[in-house]
Specification:
alpha/beta; two-stranded antiparallel ribbon; 34% helix
């Protein structure tokens, strides 16, 4: 039975990967863009992707109070995952995109600086947060989101992604456990 589950899981991951084309020189020359949008065009593959994320969390025994989704594709998967885990969802947005009082964090990227924010009372101290993004490349955005959650005294239980580009060593910038469905 366990072998069947592993094969089934690997078959679903392989099918998921087959639905993620790469686009050369997008959004600028020299960048190979991994386009996850076709996943959502196939209900079975989209459902599998969220189920695989959920299965990982449940098999790991991680207690999650809040799924934190990073702009913008983290908003597509994050709320679905939060529903399956029976927990809340909080969006992390680029500066100036959220109403009301916010908490901001500026962080350094390989090509400059960026700022992300959340609504001030969206995360309570010591809540177990799972930070989700569709892809981890250089790790700058995920590391920035971790800094933001630290400033709110959250307990970061894991950083999770659909795809991780190993050659860019993004996980090296993240001081928390990282899991990706697909590592390339």
């Amino acid at each position: 039975m366990a072998t069947e589950n592993v094969q089934s899981k690997q078959a679903r991951i392989d099918r998921l990967k087959a639905h993620i084309p790469t686009v050369p020189d997008f959004p600028k020359p020299g960048i190979l863009f991994w386009d996850i949008m076709p996943i959502m065009q196939n209900p079975e593959v989209f459902s599998d992707s969220v189920a695989l994320l959920e299965e990982h969390i449940k098999e790991s025994g991680i207690k999650v109070d809040v799924v934190v989704g990073l702009e913008a594709r983290g908003f597509l998967f994050g709320p679905l995952l939060a529903l399956r885990l029976n927990c809340g969802f909080v969006p992390v947005r680029k500066a100036g995109k959220l109403p009301g009082e916010t908490v901001k964090c500026s962080y350094t990227l390989e090509y400059g600086k960026d700022t992300v924010e959340v609504q001030k009372n969206s995360i309570k101290p010591n809540q177990n947060v799972l930070i989700f993004d569709d892809l981890i490349a250089t790790g700058g955005t995920m590391a920035g989101a971790c800094q933001l959650m630290e400033s709110m005294q959250a307990n970061i239980v894991e950083c999770l992604a659909v795809v991780e580009l190993d050659d860019l060593k993004g996980r090296d910038k993240i001081k928390y456990p990282v899991h990706s469905l697909i590592r390339c």
